[in-house]
Amino acid sequence: MTAVTIPGLDQAPTTHKRLLAWVREVAELTAPDQVVWVDGSEEEWTRLTDRLVAAGTFTRLDKKPNSFYAASDPNDVARVEERTFICSVDEADSGPTNNWMAPDEMKAIMTELYRGSMRGRTMYVIPFCMGPLDAEKPMLGVEITDSEYVVVSMRIMTRMGAQALARFTDADGNERDFVPALHSLGAPLAPGQSDVPWPCSDTKYIVHFPEERLIWSYGSGYGGNALLGKKCYSLRIASVIGRDEGWLAEHMLILKLISPENKVYYIAAAFPSACGKTNLAMLEPTIPGWKVETLGDDIAWMRFGEDGRLYAVNPENGFFGVAPGTNWKTNPNAMRTIDKGNSLFTNVALTDDGDIWWEGMENPPAHATSWKGEDWTPESDELSSHANSRYCTPMAQCPVLAPEWDDPQGVPISAIFFGGRRATTIPLVSESFDWQHGTFMGATLSSEKTAAATGNLGEVRRDPMAMLPFIGYHAGDYFRHWIETGKRADADKLPKIFYVNWFRRGDDGRFLWPGFGENSRVLKWAIERLEGKAAAHESPIGWVPTAADLDLSGLDADPADIDAALAVDLDEWRAELPLIEAWFDKIGDKLPTSLRDELAALKQRLAG
Ligand code: SAT
Ligand code: MN
Fold first, then answer.
1. Residue 125 to residues 180, 369, 374, 476: CA-CA distances in angstroms?
2. End-to-end Cα, the chain, rounded Å
3. Which residues are in the Phosphoenolpyruvate carboxykinase GTP-utilising N-terminal domain (predicted)?
4. Which of 89, 174, 515, 607 is most buried when burial is the number of CB atoms within 10 A of its CB?
């Protein structure tokens, strides 16, 4: 059989055998018009963004340098969890929280979907690296995609192109391993058929083969479905690698807190998508003398250092933040970051003077075009922007970026925060008794559903460690991995674990805690707990502060609301017990007994 010739296929800027073989195999299956090896250059960015403008996918913004607006297909707006699969060889390794199909069966289905799926399009090969390029063991990947939108988004979100490809061989010339990540929009073009601004397919699959460290995605062009370095690689596949190698891949921001005495603390915090993680990561403290710098807003990889402490690295290179609600008050640093330009905005509103706007931003325009392409005015009944609309912007532009953000060593974590969005029950903050109890807090984390994934908004679901849609293996084994991690270091070197809830509400639905910059008061209390400086009292659910234990100086809030935000309501907690029990039953036999013990102990403390 003679090899198929596809323009560009043989112009590979690499001799990496496994990469070349995989690219050829995919090109022969998907049958693109041409193959382009992505180098990540300025010229390439210009060529691709020009092409996206010509195709009607992008509108160049007059008011922000080198920035673009896009509106997706209305059926392609968020991660599709019901179409997301962990295809482990053994179903028991996928567990009750993931969709599963046998790898062979899934591959047979998807191979037929991919057959000819790039016809009429260009196939791009994007070498990328998650985390610092100069890591001793760089975490490499290659995304193959037929979406220019994905290529330019990956240029913001990852270290990619020639600089990544240069790491595909080590100093001795040996080929390094990489995670192959195949993405197709599933929208081939017949000869002469004109394209639509947002090609995608009604059939969607987001699939992980954990043993092979392989990702196959089909049919969606948006966010975590399509930018495969993010949730697919850095959480689902990386969590499996972390399980096997003894480290943690977590859905956590990383921030640096600097005290008035210039002491530095690093905090990692897990919240479900669209619960204010990006705002917390870039927070401007309202208490004088304290400063926050940012290292990441979504993902943390944590490994033990030689000193026995847990060090975190952010694998990403950009922010993919929820737009609505972001403004000069809630997140001034995000506003400053996007104002520098070089950013993409998807499913927000486009103003008549060539800027973007979304709900919650200052100065609503008198008229704009909504994400659905319709006329919009402040009087409109419909929202201008989709609830999961996003800005995609380079981390390097963040004015409060910590200088050590690109350090392959990572930063030593002093505290881990778990948080969700709960109207009741969960107090503003509590501190775990120890690592195992903190793991219990994380494992039973709950939140009301947000718009980051399709589904019913507001419904309370358990979201362990904010990882429910991102654990690449059995949740019970994942909890065991957390428990075991705590046994691998001295207790005094482990981060202390806290559980927070910024979203508790009063009877009339108002938020009891002002949130945003005021959350620095909770961070300060937590840090002072580590230093043995702040007071707390023991409650059935952990150590909790009273209002007097928090620094509330200058806070404009009703003291009764603060008390209510901090309260541990025993009846509400007793009502929570059967929900936790049902959740643990769902996890089944693989639930570590230590977590059953924690539940029994909590029950006992609440009975007392
Ligand atoms: O769409 S993403 O998964 O990238 C964003 C998120 O839900 O955090
Ligand atoms: Mn996220």
1. 10, 34, 35, 36
2. 77
3. 22-243
4. 515
77 secondary structure, DSSP code: S
For the segment 173-204, what is each residue's pLDDT rounded down to a tens digit? Answer: 999 999 999 999 999 999 999 999 999 999 99
Q: Please report the ipTM that was assigned to this predicted complex.
A: 0.97
Place of tokens 């936790």: 580
Phi, psi dihedrals of residue 597, rounded to the nearest 5°: -60, -40
Question: Which long-range CB contacts under 8 A does 94-98 form with residues at least 24 apart?
Answer: 94/473, 94/474, 95/471, 95/473, 95/474, 95/475, 95/476, 95/477, 95/587, 95/590, 96/474, 96/475, 96/586, 96/587, 96/588, 97/468, 97/471, 97/475, 97/586, 97/587, 98/471
The distance of Cα 449 from the centroid of its chain, to the nearest Å, equals: 15
Catalytic residues: 275
Q: Based on the number of CB atoms within 10 Å of its own CB, is 562 exposed (0-12), middle (13-18) or buried (19 or more)? A: buried
Tell me which amino acid residue 220 is: S
Q: Strands, E, within 202-325: which ranges?
A: 205-209, 214-218, 248-250, 252-258, 264-270, 291-296, 300-304, 310-313, 318-322
Residue (of 278, 263, 332, 251) closest to 524 by Cα position:
263
pLDDT in tens, 520-576: 999 999 999 999 999 999 999 999 999 999 999 999 999 999 999 999 999 999 999
In angstroms, the CA 400 to CA 393 distance is 14
Q: How far is the CA of 549 from the centre of ligand 1 (A)?
A: 36
The torsion angles phi and psi of 286, rounded to 5 degrees, stand at: -90, -10
Which pair of structure tokens corresponds to residue 171? 């100093």
Number of helical (H) and strand (E) elements in the chain, helices listed first:
15, 30
Q: Do the bridges between strand 205-209 and strand 214-218 make them parallel or antiparallel, or are there none, so unpaired?
A: antiparallel
Measured distance CA(608)–CA(606) in Å, rounded: 5
Closest C-alpha to 544, from 428, 465, 420: 428
- If DSSP codes are grouped into helix, strand and coil, which group holds residue 359? coil
Q: Which amino acid is at 280?
A: L
Confidence at residue 552, expressed as pLDDT on a 0 to 100 scale:
97
Residues near 305 by Cβ (< 8 Å), separated by ≥ 6? Answer: 311, 409, 410, 412
**pTM as predicted:** 0.97
Is the confidence at residue 323, as pLDDT, over 90? yes
Mutate to test the pocket of ligand 1, among 150, 231, 232, 275 (most ligand atoms within 8 A of CB): 231
CA distances from 320 to 26, 222, 238 (A): 28, 11, 19
Q: Residues lining ligand 1, CB < 6 A?
A: 79, 223-224, 230-231, 273, 298, 320, 452
Closest CA to 475 of 583, 579, 587: 587
DSSP states of 312-352 as a string?
EE---SEEEEE-TT-STTT-HHHHHHHHT---EEESSEEET
- Please check the confidence at residue 1 and state whether its pLDDT lies above 70: no
| CA 190 to ligand 2 center in whole angstroms | 36
Confidence at residue 228, expressed as pLDDT on a 0 to 100 scale:
98
Q: Which atom from ligand 1 is nearest to the alpha carbon of 452?
A: 7
